[in-house]
């Protein structure tokens, strides 16, 4: 049995996608620890590699993608990056619960939610299916839905926001202790979103989970995450306790992301969009810092050397300028 709140250690993870220009990394050399019992938020603009990182936690990157280096060690389970076949299928759902970005559309249109719940339970050899249904109804009720009615419904009878909550229920109902939520609340209005995040936090604490929440919306992680990791161009550029990262961002990209959010800076007039666009797989620099094209602090070394992720107090930051400032 997996013990409560396992730790997860992602080490040197690189995930590549095969393109016409060869295999290009969407995630490169990422090392990140999900501490037992914490919620870690992963933020970054579209294309920064967040979903690819989430899929790697379940070893679910599909061709033309593959994990080309690194490991994902989960306490009590082992290195998921090495799992295949039945071992992998069993780990997913039972030990690692997940909602993927497309959760709103991932239900089977031909079966009721209840039937899919039972299929899920049977495929994971759950003996107490009544208990499973009870737990599902309770989770749905907590998220403001009529559980019995939702379980009797087909996908087309549910709104986007309802489907999203069904996705969260399915991620939690098997009692997995590692949970990965990729954009769990994008289809919800602000108030529902806030309520759902509160429930995610409560369930997380009650059940002793280790949770990863992926979002492009810093407001979402500010509400829910204990720790924050910021991705850009497939690299992790900054990580640390959420309050510290948001209150005193070190990496120029994190600073730019935070400046761009009216809700956090308080006044919409002060919010400034980060100039330029994030790189794609084809345009991400092959050497030097991935962020340098948009960086106010760019130095010569940034063109040639990829900055190492270094500890700065409670923070890990990959930026030459931050390292130079620290040693000045
Ligand atoms: N199947 C695929 N084949 C080729 N490239 C892919 C594939 N899936 C993702 N990519 C590329 O990998 C990079 C990272 O994508 P990923 O979806 O992980 O980023 P993301 O930060 O989650 O973005 P979003 O928030 O838009 O989902 C992007 O440049 C994307 O175009």
Automatic annotation (TrEMBL):
Residues 8-258 form the ABC transporter domain. Belongs to the ABC transporter superfamily. Keywords: ATP-binding, Cell membrane, Membrane, Nucleotide-binding, Transport. It comes from Nonomuraea longicatena. SMART domains: AAA. Transmembrane segments: none annotated. Gene3D superfamilies: P-loop containing nucleotide triphosphate hydrolases. It comes from the Bacteria. It holds the Pfam family ABC_tran. PROSITE patterns: ABC_TRANSPORTER_2. One of its GO terms (molecular function) is ATP binding. CDD domains: ABC_NikE_OppD_transporters (cd03257). It is found in: Cell membrane. This is ABC transporter ATP-binding protein. It is a peripheral membrane protein. The lineage of its organism: Bacteria, Bacillati, Actinomycetota, Actinomycetes, Streptosporangiales.
